[in-house]
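Page 42, continued from yesterday. The earlier attempt failed because a stray header line got pasted into the input along with the sequence. Redoing it now with the clean sequence only.
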Amino acid sequence: MGLFKKRKYFTINLVNKDREEDASQPNIPHGMWVKCIKCNKISYGKTVEQNYKICPNCGGYFRLSAKERLESIIDCDTFTEFDSDMISKDPLSFPGYNEKLEKEKKKSSLNDGVITGKGKINGLETIVAIMDSNFMMGSMGTVVGEKITRAIEKATELKLPIIIFTCSGGARMQEGILSLMQMAKTSAALKVHDKKGLLYISVITDPTTGGVTASFASLGDIIIAEPKALIGFAGRRVIEGTINQKLPEEFQTAEFMLEHGFIDKIVKRQDMKNTLGKLLKIHNINRRGKDE
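This time it went through. Structure tokens are written below.
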């Protein structure tokens, strides 16, 4: 399999820093071993990599970067990125925000929390937007909202389906009301796309919360989630404190959402590309039938 060429975002370095200069100690390459945050067990990095970044011990999912996600679902050499140079400003002069943005750019190698573009899945052309938790936990600010809106509008213009992978902590507080406005903007663009009879597939990954859940993540014609993904608006403690009730243990998981009709299907990571390909194929056949 070997889907992922880099192990940048999920590795840990088990080398004792105090011993790095000691030639008598074994030199363990960075990223050789990885620790699962679900079961706390350590696995050989290459084994996890070859297993679609799924823990071989407990089946827990390591989070993927947007670039890794692209590599796993988009046909080789078919992706064209949109708006790669778009960067966030500091509209509210929020203390420390510019410094935070620069730090996140270096850490994630991204200009903001989403990658958008056009590519093919099993030979079928589609527009995609993929959020990345490595940039401020995938929070939605003006750039994330604008890039996703432009991707939706491009899909409408080209009469193509759009697939959005969500992973977000919600709206970005440093941009205040401007970040909340992105909920309405993305939703309005999807309404226009829908009126053209075009397909929108929402793929919810862990975690998807706040304003993203309350807007475009929940508006898909088909809503898919990865196993055990956290999906919700407010946090568990906030809800329990409001209603004075204890919530079920599985509350806000993909499995809970499927049982209660909020999503359509849970798809394992290794099956994601073929599942999306089948949905795109069915949609293309149906559209051809209507056009004829």
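Notes: The chain has two domains: 30-62, 63-284.
Reminder to self: strip header lines before submitting.
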